Amino acid sequence: MTIKRFIFIRPGETGWNRLGRWQGHVAVPLSDHGKLQAERLAKFVRVIGIQQLYTSDLRRALETAQIIAGVLNLTPIPDARLRERHIGMWQGLTQAEVEAWYPNEYRQLVENPNDYQIPDGEARQHVTERMLAAFKDILAQTSDKAVGIVSHTTAIRALLGSLMPDINPYALDFANMSVTSIARDTNGKWSFTQQNDVSHLEGMPSEAFRELEKEKP
Length: 217
What we know:
With 217 residues, the protein is of the alpha/beta class. It contains seven helices and six strands, in the order E-H-H-E-H-E-H-H-H-E-H-E-E. The protein is globular, with a radius of gyration of 17 Å. The C terminus is likely disordered.
């Protein structure tokens, strides 16, 4: 069984992106700017030839997928395993607030980023396990197709780190509405064909500050 490529799409911008608030599983909708980004991306991906589209079931991802699917005449397939990391009691806070209000917990996160479980939330390793399980299921159901997956920064990084152990995915940027594609060679090795591509957003970049696009736990 072969796969042409997987295209990972980060959802469009939300109001909380602009404010630097960590979203986790909160049902934050796309902002008007985010919807325009999704419409721009839909025109771009139309020429890529995506034949199936999977999506996180979180609101910002589902709204993004629905806009894209409307142009491609596809039905997006939601999967809760493609969600962003659940950040528990930190949802809705800024990084500065987390560091100030929960200094001990934040220090544990920094010291043990893969295994530390945020109170009422997930460890990064949990995200890796569910993302990899979802990916394997999609892979098993898909033959010789270009597959789109709308997911989130930490979730995409966690999966890519499993598929390409030679890279450090947490050193990579993933802007709102960016496109990152991977392909598998005849030896079964995955590699990038594009990473954090936002060329389709020329003239309408993210309104969020760049420092707010850094990794969220």
